[in-house]
């Protein structure tokens, strides 16, 4: 028998089928957002909650029951705020709507004071167009937000029922589905693709879990802090600060702005206003110095410039959702590039 | 009566399917993964139900004749059982240094145990081959979800490694003896 050397290492048909499969998947992902967004959300939740199933099993909860328990808890966590928080948010939002003209008057008042100060001190006339443009943008944004609120709410209601259903089926058949997908992977790259896909899943799951914990801690600190200085909407502002914190870089600033506007309208430039500024600064300092390094940065291990670039690219491609998932995806891409580098340059 | 009902509820349909499919009463011509695993000596310490759990973590890979399965020097993360077909293991040292593995035999066990495992031989299919593979991430999943099954699997892997280690020592001893004999002559 002749010595075989493995002539058929790469089968071009296998690679073609595999690449076409990936392209088809991404085509669906980008063109059917109504389906792909709840699917992606459920997949991320599946990655976050998957490690919980064996932990529940260890304390004696059967597999099916532990999966149902997670799904039902999630369903409750999604429905309960709607029942309890919607009237509250509606009330707060309508109050906020009454506040907006008041805020406009305040902003105009301080702007003209600052303008006359500059004019007297430096003999320079500031153009009013800046103020008018700023106020117009603020009005347009709030109007657009309020008009599109019913459609957001409709999508959210759809997701509330779709996400837990998808999540349950991912728990039940995720492993089988993964095996079917992996069957498409050509043999020579099977192990590498499998290793990278598990690392990718782990990074996304761990990152989202860490960000949710981080956002909760930050939201609680800000909510409690604002309640102590007796600022109106302290709970809502805490929730906003927590939610926006999930978005890297832009999030903390975006979460701070409504709080500062409310504080300015409520207290004017007094000691209480500076206390609110201090609360936001302390909360963000705790986040930057303690929570982020302990919880999040170990997971991603990326250069800050790469983080900024990935967030910009994520926002360009998929908006806010893209900004949230851009960092773990960038970390995974880094992992893939490292693997390719090792394959081509350091083998042997 | 009530306890009987409680016990009855614990019986899982997949478990019944497994025991039916792996039973000796089922026709010998039919071949399936649970039945195959039951016949492999290294898994003799695993119970029927544990083998059923293990079979859920296995990947089936098909290789055509002459297809390279493992390339020497590549990083590896998988342990494979030959489900059907025959493979040839060879080094680059020369045409004589090769061996054959067939159905029921296995390779790549170090990949599951080492942190970074580099494949130390080439393996090529010499017929149509079907492999059952378990990879490192699967073992990590198994450790989390079924610690007892994973402990028994690691025990089996240790047994394979110790057997290979013993045969390597035997070979070294015989080579040393041959060298000594040749130098004395």
Protein architecture, described:
With 348 residues, chain A is mainly alpha-helical. Chain A has a domain at 192-343. Chain A is built from 10 helices and no strands. Chain A has helices at 12-31, 33-49, 52-58, 63-122, 129-183, 190-228, 234-245, 250-267, 271-300, 304-345. The longest helix of chain A has 60 residues, at 63-122. Chain A starts with 11 loop residues before the first helix and ends with a helix. Chain B has 185 residues and is of the alpha+beta class. Chain B has a single domain (2-163), classed as Jelly Rolls. Helix content of chain B is 46%, strand content 23%. Chain B has helices spanning 2-10, 13-22, 33-38, 48-56, 110-113, 136-145, 147-184, and strands at residues 59-63, 68-70, 75-76, 78-84, 86-90, 98-102, 106-107, 117-118, 122-125, 129-135. Chain B starts with a helix and ends with a helix. The model of chain B is unreliable at 1-8 (pLDDT under 50). The chains are: A mainly alpha (348), B alpha+beta (185). Chains A and B meet through α3, α5 and α6 of A and β1, β3 and α6 of B.
Q: Largest interface here, residues on each chain?
A: A-B, 27 and 28 residues
CATH homolog superfamily of chain B: Jelly Rolls
Task: From the alpha carbons, calculate the radius of gyration of chain B and give it in angstroms.
Answer: 20 Å
> What gap, in angstroms, lies between the N and C termini of chain B?
82 Å
Number of separate domains of chain B: 1
Largest sheet of chain B: 4 strands, antiparallel
Which secondary structure elements does this structure contain, and how are they paired or packed?
The complex is a heterodimer of chains A (348) and B (185).
Chain A lengths: L11 H20 L1 H17 L2 H7 L4 H60 L6 H55 L6 H39 L5 H12 L4 H18 L3 H30 L3 H42 L3
Helix pairs in contact in A: 1-2, 2-5, 2-6, 3-4, 4-5, 4-8, 6-7, 6-9, 6-10, 7-8, 8-9
Chain B lengths: L1 H9 L2 H10 L10 H6 L9 H9 L2 E5 L4 E3 L4 E2 L1 E7 L1 E5 L7 E5 L3 E2 L2 H4 L3 E2 L3 E4 L3 E7 H10 L1 H38 L1
Antiparallel strand pairs in B: 1-10, 2-9, 3-8, 4-7, 4-10, 5-6, 5-9
Helix pairs in contact in B: 6-7
């Amino acid at each position: 028998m002749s010595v075989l050397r493995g002539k058929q290492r790469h089968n071009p048909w296998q690679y073609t089928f595999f690449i076409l499969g990936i392209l088809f998947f991404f085509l669906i992902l980008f063109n059917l957002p109504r389906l792909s967004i709840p699917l992606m959300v459920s997949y991320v939740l599946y990655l976050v909650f998957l490690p919980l199933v064996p932990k529940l099993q260890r304390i004696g909860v059967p597999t099916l029951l532990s999966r149902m328990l997670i799904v039902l808890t999630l369903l409750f966590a999604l429905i309960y705020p709607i029942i309890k928080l919607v009237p509250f948010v509606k009330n707060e939002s309508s109050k906020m709507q009454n506040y907006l003209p008041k805020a406009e008057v305040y902003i105009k008042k301080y702007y003209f004071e600052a303008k006359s100060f500059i004019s007297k001190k430096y003999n320079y006339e500031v153009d009013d167009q800046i103020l008018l443009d700023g106020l117009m943008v603020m009005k347009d944004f709030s109007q657009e937000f309020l008009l599109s609120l019913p459609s957001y709410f409709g999508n959210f209601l759809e997701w509330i029922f779709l996400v837990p259903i998808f999540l349950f089926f991912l728990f039940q058949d995720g492993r089988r589905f993964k095996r079917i997908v992996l069957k498409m992977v050509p043999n020579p790259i099977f192990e590498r693709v499998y290793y990278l896909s598990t690392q990718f899943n782990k990074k996304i799951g761990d990152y989202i879990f860490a960000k949710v914990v981080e956002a909760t801690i930050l939201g609680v600190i800000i909510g409690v802090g604002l309640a102590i200085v007796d600022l109106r909407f302290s709970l809502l502002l805490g929730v906003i600060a927590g939610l926006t914190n999930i978005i890297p870089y832009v999030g903390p600033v975006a979460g701070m702005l409504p709080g500062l506007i409310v504080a300015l309208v409520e207290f004017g430039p007094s000691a209480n206003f500076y206390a609110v500024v201090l609360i936001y600064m302390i909360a963000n300092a705790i986040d930057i110095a303690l929570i982020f390094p302990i919880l999040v940065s170990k997971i991603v291990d990326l250069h800050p410039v790469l983080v900024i670039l990935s967030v910009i690219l994520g926002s360009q491609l998929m908006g806010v959702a893209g900004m949230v998932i851009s960092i773990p995806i960038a970390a995974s891409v880094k992992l893939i590039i490292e693997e390719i580098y090792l394959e081509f340059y350091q083998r042997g | 009566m009530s306890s009987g009902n409680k016990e009855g509820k614990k019986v899982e349909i997949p478990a019944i399917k497994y025991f039916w499919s792996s039973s000796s009463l089922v026709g010998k011509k039919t071949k399936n993964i649970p039945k195959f695993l039951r016949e492999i000596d290294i898994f003799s310490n695993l119970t029927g139900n544990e083998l059923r759990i293990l079979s859920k973590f296995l990947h089936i890979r098909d290789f055509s004749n002459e297809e390279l399965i493992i390339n020497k020097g590549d990083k590896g993360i998988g342990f494979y059982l030959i489900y059907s077909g025959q493979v040839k293991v060879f080094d680059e040292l020369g045409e004589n240094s090769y061996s054959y593995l067939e159905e029921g035999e296995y390779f790549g066990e170090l990949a599951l145990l080492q942190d970074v495992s580099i494949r130390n031989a080439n393996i090529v299919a010499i017929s149509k081959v079907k492999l059952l593979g378990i990879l490192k991430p699967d073992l990590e999943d198994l450790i989390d979800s079924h610690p007892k099954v994973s402990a028994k699997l690691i025990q089996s892997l240790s047994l394979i490694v110790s057997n290979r280690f013993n045969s390597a020592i035997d070979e070294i001893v015989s080579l040393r003896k041959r060298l000594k004999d040749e130098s004395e002559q």
